UniProtKB/TrEMBL annotation:
<feature type="binding site">
    <location>
        <position position="113"/>
    </location>
    <ligand>
        <name>CoA</name>
    </ligand>
</feature>
<feature type="binding site">
    <location>
        <position position="115"/>
    </location>
    <ligand>
        <name>Mg(2+)</name>
    </ligand>
</feature>
<dbReference type="GO" id="GO:0009366">
    <property type="term" value="C:enterobactin synthetase complex"/>
</dbReference>
<keyword id="KW-0808">Transferase</keyword>
<dbReference type="InterPro" id="IPR003542">
    <property type="entry name" value="Enbac_synth_compD-like"/>
</dbReference>
<dbReference type="InterPro" id="IPR037143">
    <property type="entry name" value="4-PPantetheinyl_Trfase_dom_sf"/>
</dbReference>
<dbReference type="InterPro" id="IPR041354">
    <property type="entry name" value="4PPT_N"/>
</dbReference>
<keyword id="KW-0479">Metal-binding</keyword>
<dbReference type="Pfam" id="PF01648">
    <property type="entry name" value="ACPS"/>
</dbReference>
<feature type="binding site">
    <location>
        <position position="114"/>
    </location>
    <ligand>
        <name>Mg(2+)</name>
    </ligand>
</feature>
<feature type="binding site">
    <location>
        <position position="161"/>
    </location>
    <ligand>
        <name>CoA</name>
    </ligand>
</feature>
<feature type="binding site">
    <location>
        <position position="46"/>
    </location>
    <ligand>
        <name>CoA</name>
    </ligand>
</feature>
<dbReference type="InterPro" id="IPR008278">
    <property type="entry name" value="4-PPantetheinyl_Trfase_dom"/>
</dbReference>
<dbReference type="GO" id="GO:0009239">
    <property type="term" value="P:enterobactin biosynthetic process"/>
</dbReference>
<dbReference type="GO" id="GO:0005886">
    <property type="term" value="C:plasma membrane"/>
</dbReference>
<dbReference type="GO" id="GO:0000287">
    <property type="term" value="F:magnesium ion binding"/>
</dbReference>
<dbReference type="Pfam" id="PF17837">
    <property type="entry name" value="4PPT_N"/>
</dbReference>
């Protein structure tokens, strides 16, 4: 499902495929009590999503040699609080959870988002896409990518996830213009000032019913 080509060489990742109909709480119950407490009052499906994504994060950290059983807590706007020298991102959607991490000596910030490879509701796209992004959605659809609008949404989410840890500021859909390329890459041009970087680069893929986008600031 996830491919290493989505990420910088220094990154490590993990994912799980789950039953969409029956949430499994095994990974949630295996978390540190402080992690469990973050969603202890949520419904089972939310606990399962949270537990699986956190489990993936811990496995990826282990691959980096960072397995220390410390909880991954939440900061502003739900941002994961990674170990001091680590950056990373998590995502979850129906039947799929994933996480990626990398040392800050190689990667400044990362974003990861996964969505079902289905078109967005028609009324939603106007709140997601800038006018300059509409022609490329038509081009991608002409190339056979029926969920091009969902891909744009996914790329913007991955962009925000890399943006926020660097700035601790909100980034609206209209504040980044995405250039999605047919070769599986994209560039997010940041339209707000001040900004620590003028753009954020990313990679995308379609596989097994999902669209996945990953960003990295190296």
């Amino acid at each position: 499902m996830l491919d290493a080509s989505l990420f910088p060489d220094a990154a490590r990742f993990c994912y799980v495929i789950t039953d969409k109909q029956h949430p499994d709480l095994q990974n949630y119950h295996g978390l540190h009590p402080l992690e469990q407490a973050l969603v202890s009052h949520s419904v089972d499906i939310r606990k399962a999503e949270f537990g699986d994504a956190r489990w993936c994060a811990h496995q990826a950290l282990s691959d980096l040699g960072e397995w220390n059983h410390e909880p991954i807590l939440r900061g502003e706007r739900g941002m994961p609080l990674w170990p001091r020298d680590i950056t990373g991102s998590m995502t979850h959607t129906e039947g799929f959870r994933a996480a990626v991490v990398a040392p800050k000596t190689h990667v400044r910030s990362m974003g990861l988002d996964a969505e079902p490879a289905q078109p967005l509701p028609r009324e939603v796209i106007s709140s997601i896409a800038r006018p300059g992004e509409m022609p490329q959605l038509e081009r991608l659809q002409d190339e056979g990518i029926e969920c091009a609008d969902r891909l744009l949404f996914c790329a913007k989410e991955a962009t925000y996830k890399a943006w926020f840890p660097m700035t601790h500021r909100w980034l609206g859909f209209e504040e980044a213009e995405i250039d999605i390329r047919s070769d599986g890459s994209f560039v997010s041009y940041l339209l707000v000032r001040p900004t620590p970087v003028p753009f954020i680069s990313g990679r995308w893929m379609l596989d097994d019913g999902y669209v996945i986008a990953a960003t990295a600031v190296t």
